[in-house]
Amino acid sequence: MIADLTEAIRLNPSLANAYYNRGNAKYELGDKQAAITDYNEAIRLDPNLADVFYNRGVAKSCLGDKEGAIADYNEAIHLNPNYAESYNNRGNVKYVLGDKEGAIADYNEAIRIKPDHDESYNNRGNVKSDLGDQEGAIADYNEAIHLNPNYALAYNNRGKVKSDLGDKQGAIADYNEAIRIKPDHDGAYYNRGLTKKERNEKQGALADFQKALELYQLQGNTEWYNKSRDRIRELGV
User: Fold this and answer.
1) 184: how many CB neighbours lie within 10 A of its CB?
2) Are 187 and 215 in contact (CB under 8 A)?
3) Residue 237: what pLDDT?
4) Cβ density class 77-116: b for 16+ within 10 Å, e for less
5) Of 52, 82, 94, 189, which is least surrounded by CB within 10 A?
6) DSSP letters along the chain, please?
7) What is the pLDDT of residue 167?
8) Which tens digits make up the pLDDT trace of 144-166?
9) What's the pTM?
């Protein structure tokens, strides 16, 4: 595909969409910086393509350029005021930067534009939980799950809040569902292990932490591999 798009660009260097599509292909292959280079060229040729700004924002965010990502989402929204995904993603970046109220405002707007935007409900639930609104968080996770019954991450997140509220059995039920939907859901194993540990179910907790450790190792996630190993050590193993 990249070869074909490169040939199309060679034949007609003014094809903004060819640069855009080649950028998308490079992004999918993991070369985010090369993708940004193509998005830059697409924007130079046609500065009115909201999707190009949006995708460049996604790539910038992945590379750690959060302010650059926000600038691109702003432009995508300027070009298309009903761009729900841009509001959602801008909310994600604001959340990472510590602007929780700004993040909620963006999720609200994404939901207003697209009431079935399950991801925005899940993300808004995360921020509400951080702000101490646990019941509001659960309501958002409930809606995300209602819209997408196979939303493993929303089950996992709802489980964490239920556990914090003392509903350990409800939390385990949610982690079970997350794992049923996504058997390699490392976070659900880890969190279920925590809840079982709190219930003094040592062997069950140990099995979950070991499974989480294996999954984190496969992903090369050193931070959470070490956390899982620490939890296993706490159990005296």
Assistant:
1) 13
2) no
3) 67
4) bebbeebbbbbbbbbbbbbeeebbebbbbbbebbbebbee
5) 82
6) -HHHHHHHHHH-TT-HHHHHHHHHHHHHTT-HHHHHHHHHHHHHH-TT-HHHHHHHHHHHHHTT-HHHHHHHHHHHHHH-TT-HHHHHHHHHHHHHTT-HHHHHHHHHHHHHH-TT-HHHHHHHHHHHHHTT-HHHHHHHHHHHHHH-TT-HHHHHHHHHHHHHTT-HHHHHHHHHHHHHH-TT-HHHHHHHHHHHHHTT-HHHHHHHHHHHHHHHHHHT-HHHHHHHHHHHHHTT-
7) 97
8) 999 999 999 999 999 999 999 99
9) 0.92
**189-204 pLDDT, tens digit each:** 999 999 999 999 999 9
Helix axes 84-96 and 66-79, enclosed angle (nearest 10): 160
